Amino acid sequence: MATSDDELQQLLLTLGAQFRQRLQQELPALRVQAEQLLTASTAAAQHLILQDMRALLHKLAGSAGTFGYASLGAQAREL
Question: What residues have CB less than 8 Å from 34, skipping those under 6 apart?
Fold first, then answer.
């Protein structure tokens, strides 16, 4: 079944709103992880934190540009 342009536009608006809500959680989470990285007591703990940060940054890099956050996507890729 074909999706009309209006339905597609509405879907993109909905996904964009969900992405913005996700940012409100994920950006502070990255800040907390960065702070934890600075205070991690072992290399193993640092490694786990870095893995989590990398996964989150990878998701942001891939989706940010789709929703109008090209600069955020580029920064996430750089990190």
Answer: 53
